[in-house]
Structures are given as C-alpha cells and as structure tokens.
Specification:
Structural class: alpha+beta
Helix content: 25-40%
Distance between the termini: 26 Å
Length: 198
C-alpha cells in the first residue's frame, strides 16, 4: 500500500498539477507539493485507479467513523472494508521556500483539536472500525529540514499512546516542484494497546 501510494503520488506529480487557492485565487507552481492534503490524496487515488493493478480495488476518501459519523477518516480501501487510513502531510516549506512553522504541529500536537498525526493515531486506535488501521505521512525533504527527526519524534510519542507497527517507507523523487522536489511516504499500522479500553 505504501509503495502504491507513493507511486500514485509520483505519477500525479508528473502530470504537473497546479494548485489554485480557493481563498485568494492564487495559482502555485506546478507539482503535488503545494496542494492541500485532501486534494493531493484525491490526485493520488485518481492516479492509482488508472493503474491496472489497482483499478478493481475499491478505495476512496472520507470514511465516517462509526461512533462519530461527522468525523471522517481520510482514506479507505476494500469492500468489505480492509483498511482505514488517516493521512497527514509534512511540508516544512511553502511554495516560495519560506519555512512553515505549523508543520510540526500537524504531526506532533497532543491536542485533538489540532488534528495531528498523533491525535489521528489515537482516534483510529480507539475507534470501532472493524478493519486494519494505519497512519500515513507523506512529506517533502529539504537539506536544512529533513523529515527524519520529526518522523522519529512522532514514533516516540505515538508508541506511548497506541500499539504502533513497523514503519513502512517509499521514496518519491524527482518531483517537479523546485522546492518540494523530493518526497517520502511513511506508514504504520495502529491499534489500541492489548486490554486497553476502546
């Protein structure tokens, strides 16, 4: 799944998609990097569906949580449901190359209201979804802001709150955007600790 998602995102990026901000109307430089998370996932799924290996596998976005149907899981795979996946973007620079100071919050915030990768892992692990559950982080590498320290911090914090599986990783390079030129996808299966209340 991780390699397929990374390949799908790389293929979507190669089509040079242009993100246009709904708020400002500004068009960003071509590439998957500037896209909002939901839009990037939609482009990736579209690319995966055009691959004969995946065109018959049902998958989509916005799976309602059984106990809180207004909350939606980012990605689902299979009918009957096989995987529920929360997706988080790790983008430490903007389209113009300036640092994005909110990126670490999006990964590591302990507060549910911030909807971070960490709080998503807890939400998935405690949910009553009857399938495999995973957190997937896709991000972009920069020479002065590598992803690895932030990913390691996520693992350290998550292991104290959920049963976190092995990290699976796939690279995406080269990408077309001049700033978001190298990417990587990481994912972990998550579940509640054995015997923990759900």
């Amino acid at each position: 799944m991780v390699e397929a998602f990374a390949q799908g995102m790389w293929n979507a990026d190669a089509a040079r998609p242009v993100w246009v901000s709904q708020r400002s109307g500004r068009a960003y430089q071509p590439g998957i990097g500037p896209h909002a998370e939901n839009a990037a996932v939609a482009l990736t799924l579209g690319s995966m569906r055009s691959d004969p290996r995946f065109d018959a596998i049902p998958m989509g976005q916005f799976l309602p949580y059984p106990d809180a149907p207004r909350q939606k899981c980012d990605l689902w795979v299979g009918e009957p449901l096989e995987w529920a996946v929360e997706v988080k973007m790790a983008r430490f620079r903007g389209d113009n190359g300036k640092p994005d100071d909110t990126a670490l919050k999006d990964l590591l915030s302990p507060y549910n209201g911030d909807r971070s990768a960490l709080s998503d892992a807890r939400k998935l692990a405690r949910s009553s979804l009857r399938c495999h559950k995973a957190v997937l982080v896709y991000g972009f590498e920069y020479a002065d802001r590598p992803l690895e320290p932030a990913i390691a911090a996520f693992e350290t914090l998550a292991r104290g709150q959920v049963a976190l599986g092995l990290r699976r990783t796939a690279a995406m390079r080269p990408l077309v955007h001049p700033i978001h030129a190298e990417g990587v996808v990481h994912a972990w299966e998550v579940s509640a600790f054995e015997g923990a209340a759900v």
